[in-house]
Design a protein that fits this description.
378 residues; nine-stranded mixed beta sheet; 12 helices; globular
Length: 378
């Protein structure tokens, strides 16, 4: 199939290094750098004047975000002409003929949603078998260890992103299943949404830090994650690590991930961020590497337990959705002071408050440098 051809192309390049290093961005897109946590160095400090919850961020998290923020600025300046003139583009690794084939295959795949069939999933074995991240002798289910249930969301028209993702997995010694994502570019119109039973929450108009509408890419993103939650419910998967294909794993990822799962063992959580972009400080320091986060952006890497996945699927959240990262924050009960999302209280009428979120600090995964310019949700 076209998807398998794309995977083969990525696998053939798994040992190749991409030219660009890896990094992330935080609030510079819509609010300017002056509103971000990178403005001034401080060990711990408030991110806004009147928080209802979090006030402080761990210095290691701030430093990691600053590092990636600075690298993104450097990347932008070094590629300014390309960035300035960039519009939507498909992957240069695909010929025009293959681009057309991929679009048709992705369009057909859209109407299999939310089912994940064998042809939509591609196993990549790069780690130990059976895979586990916590130490032998410990109960992986109790700790939320995803074991073999690591899923990487990739659009078949993005083989360069797949190549990067596979290289990251290879370096970390992590096996995963590559899942063909829902491509928002394949929507032909509103009739498609009606046919699939998908809609934004009532009165959706974004908020002061987003666009006033939901992009087709954001819709595809939510649906791509939903199909994995749906798969978890159908297969009884107790815990899954979900990665978006622009991730950059930090040093000693697998070992540190297992250690952090053990560190969080005393907490009753059903969502664990491995990568995030905080818009406010953390609400609680649980341990050295585990925090209870405030309002958080990004879904580049997180662990979700079956309980939360089932809540989302059985409540049919696809009928009243919003951008996924903001949705998660409101589902954790965050943002109700309206400091970042002035629509959070309205959203909370429709978003089920079912998430008990934690986050690792510093993050174990970040988006890579330049990936924001290849975003399929913007």
């Amino acid at each position: 199939t076209v998807a398998e051809a794309g995977l083969a192309l990525g696998l053939s390049l798994v040992f190749c290094r991409l030219l660009e290093p890896c990094a992330a961005w935080a609030f510079c897109r819509s609010r300017g750098v002056a509103r971000s946590i990178f403005v001034r160095r401080r060990s711990r400090g408030a991110l806004h004047d009147e928080p209802t919850g979090g006030t402080f961020l761990d210095e290691r998290t701030v430093d990691l975000h600053r590092k990636y923020h600075d690298a993104t600025l450097d990347y932008t300046m070094q590629n300014f002409a390309w960035v300035e003139g960039k519009q939507f583009a498909t992957d240069a690794l695909l010929s025009p003929e293959l681009q057309e084939q991929v679009w048709r295959a992705s369009r057909a795949r859209l109407f299999r949603w939310p089912q994940l069939e064998a042809r939509d999933m591609h196993k990549v074995k790069l780690g130990r078998e059976p895979q586990r991240f916590c130490r032998d002798g410990l109960d992986p289910v109790a700790l939320g260890d995803p074991q073999d249930n690591v899923f990487v969301i990739n659009l078949p028209r993005r083989p360069a992103k797949l190549r990067h993702a596979l290289h990251q997995l290879y370096q970390a010694g992590v096996s995963a299943t590559v899942v063909d994502g829902i491509d928002g570019d394949t929507f032909a119109g509103q009739d498609d949404l009606g046919r699939l039973g998908v809609s934004t929450l009532p009165g959706y108009c974004g908020h002061q830090n987003t666009l006033p509408y939901l992009t087709s890419g954001q819709l595809g993103c939510f649906m791509s994650h939903f199909q994995i939650w749906h798969h978890m419910v159908e297969e009884g998967i107790e815990s899954a690590l979900i990665l978006e294909d622009d991730f950059d794993l930090q040093e000693n990822f697998a070992q540190r991930f297992g250690e952090h799962l053990e560190e969080a063992s005393s907490e009753d959580w059903n969502l664990l961020y491995l990568g995030r972009s905080p818009t406010e400080g953390d609400w609680r320091q649980v341990s050295e590497h585990i925090v209870e986060p405030g309002y958080t952006l990004w879904t580049v890497a997180y662990v979700i337990r079956l309980e939360a996945a089932r809540e989302f699927v059985e409540r049919h959240v696809e009928r009243e959705l919003a951008p996924l990262d903001h949705y998660f924050s409101v589902a954790m009960g965050r943002g109700l002071d309206l400091h970042w999302n002035d629509q959070a209280r309205h959203w909370a009428k429709y978003v089920p408050q079912v998430l008990r979120g934690l986050a690792v600090t510093p993050p174990l995964a970040m988006p890579y440098v330049g990936s924001m310019f290849l975003s399929d949700t913007a």
